[in-house]
Design a protein that fits this description.
Order of helices and strands: EEHHEHHEHEHHHHHHHHHHHHHHHHHH
Largest sheet: 5 strands, mixed
Number of strands: 5
Distance between the termini: 142 Å
Helix content: 55-70%
Strand content: 5-15%
Radius of gyration: 39 Å
Number of helices: 23
Structural class: alpha/beta
Strand order of the largest sheet: 3-2-1-4-5
Shape: extended
């Protein structure tokens, strides 16, 4: 029996032959002891063949295939040329990656083994690779590894800037953090300003409105009728403005120093800025969700859809999840606690924040959450794996199906079948695409017509000026006098 070990390096593929033995597992103690000692390790492992990569692009192509568990053509040729396949001795190939080993065994019919002694031999080869391969130095091997690592990472992080879900994950995380911070700061400014004007807390319950009101009023002694119009623009209620004005006159709050009031106004300004930035971030998240996952957004909303994507890690991961996982996504602790205590498992996770769950009856919440998770899974797969222009047709149809299911639970009206709804969505999408192509052609024709008209208008002054010059030249020429004929002179 001949035992080989395949080693994938940034410089190329290497095939090492281990010492002949009947039991491969017996090599494990010897290999573990000899890994740190090169002289002992070199006596156990010898280089059989080495195939360097031709270019950096070739190395990147090979490493991408290995990471995906695919046998590259270069690797296939290398193994077929160097393994003693036709000999009587049995050949076993040690591969560090279990997935790659199973693919090699299926594709090339070579017996592969991984784990145990293969992992230890690979560790020793990795440590002494530059010594085992002639012509390769430690700095050269390190440069090859560094260059290939940068290329591989750069290729992995490439994305379409118009359909990227990383920005959605960061935006929804920042939005949740801003909500917590704004609420905390608003409670702080309410407590701080209440020393001076305690009645304002009950009159203005909204945090953002309270911060703006506190900044506008400042000292209640200086709150005059001149500020009532500005206050009405903030509160949007004339009766509430009068109530605030009357409460400021008879307030039981303590007097406040000007320096303390300046600090309160500064803090209120910061809270207002954070609240306004939170609104802008929410609009940005909404536009980004409509670009990346339009159908999921139409079905379940921007924030719930963004939380699902964030919890799954990416839109691709969410699309790969089954509907049962999407249903309880975000309720993992409750699920494992129920499994541990043998209690009832949770019926919903993050999708509980959808309006459909709240509209359903108590008995139907679990059923509608299961149905909604199914439709969310379909919508995320359409958004993730559709290469066409983003459209909300499927999302609208899926939302209509959920509405029909809600009415079915309440009134018993049988909803449409899913296959019929999908056929309608496909037909509507094709019609929209045809209309879009016709409209784009019309726009192109109109653009060409406008360009020709502009060219004519640009050329017209030049033509008119040329015509004016020719007329001026003709007007400036004096007509020649007619010569008298000889006959008339003779008569005279």
């Amino acid at each position: 029996m001949v035992f080989f070990v395949l080693f994938e390096h940034a410089a190329g593929y290497a095939l090492f032959r281990c010492q002949d033995t009947e039991d491969i597992g017996s090599l494990l103690p010897e290999v573990q002891e000899a890994v740190d000692d090169f002289s002992r390790f070199a006596s156990m492992v010898t280089l059989e063949a080495f195939s360097p990569f031709k270019t950096g692009a070739n190395a990147l192509d090979n490493i991408n295939s290995i990471s995906e568990g695919v046998v590259h053509d270069d690797l296939k040729v290398f193994l077929l040329n160097n393994l003693s396949k036709g000999k009587k001795q049995k050949v076993i190939l040690g591969v560090a990656d279990t997935k790659l080993g199973s693919v090699i065994q299926e594709t090339l019919s070579i017996t592969c083994q991984s784990g145990g002694v293969v992992a230890e031999i690979s560790r020793g080869i990795r440590s002494h690779f530059h010594k085992l391969v002639q012509g390769l130095t430690a700095p050269g091997a390190a440069k090859a590894q560094l260059g290939l690592g940068h290329s591989y990472s750069r290729a992995k992080v490439k994305f379409n800037v118009h359909r990227v879900d990383n920005m959605i994950i960061q935006s929804i995380s920042l939005l949740d953090q801003l909500d917590k911070d704004v609420n905390t700061f608003s409670m702080r400014i309410r407590e701080w300003y209440s020393y001076h004007f305690p009645e304002l807390v009950k009159l203005v319950p909204d945090n953002y409105m309270y911060a703006r009101t506190a900044k506008l009023i400042g000292s209640r002694k200086e709150f005059t009728e001149d500020k009532l119009e500005k206050l009405e623009a903030i509160v949007m209620d004339s009766t509430k403005v009068e109530a605030i004005y009357e409460a400021a006159k008879v307030s039981m709050g303590m007097d406040i120093a000007p320096l303390d009031l300046i600090n309160i106004e500064r803090f209120a300004s910061r809270v207002i800025e954070l609240a306004e930035y939170r609104k802008g971030l929410s609009e940005y998240l909404s536009s980004k969700m409509h670009q990346v996952a339009p159908n999921l957004t139409t079905l379940i909303g921007e924030q719930v859809g963004a939380r699902l994507i964030s919890h799954a890690g990416s839109l691709t991961n969410l699309a790969k999840y089954p509907a049962s996982t999407v249903q309880i996504l975000g309720a993992e602790k409750a699920l494992f606690r129920a499994l541990k205590t043998r209690g009832n498992t949770p019926k919903y996770g993050l999708i509980f924040h959808s309006s459909f769950i709240g509209r359903a009856g108590v008995k139907n919440k679990g059923r509608i959450s299961r149905y909604l998770a199914n439709k969310c899974s379909i919508a995320s797969r359409i958004d993730c794996f559709t290469a066409e222009v983003p459209s909300t047709v499927f999302g609208e149809k899926l939302k209509g199906q959920v509405e029909e299911r809600l009415s079915f639970y309440e009134s018993g009206v049988v909803p449409k079948k899913n296959i019929d709804v999908m056929k309608e969505a496909i037909a509507e999408l094709k019609e929209k695409q045809q209309n879009a192509t016709v409209l784009s052609e019309k726009k192109k024709k109109k653009r060409k017509r406008d360009e020709t008209e502009e060219e004519v208008q640009e050329q017209q002054p030049a033509v008119e000026s040329a015509a004016m010059e020719t007329t001026a030249e003709t007007d400036g020429v004096t007509p020649k006098k007619k010569k008298k004929s000889r006959k008339s002179l003779e008569v005279n």
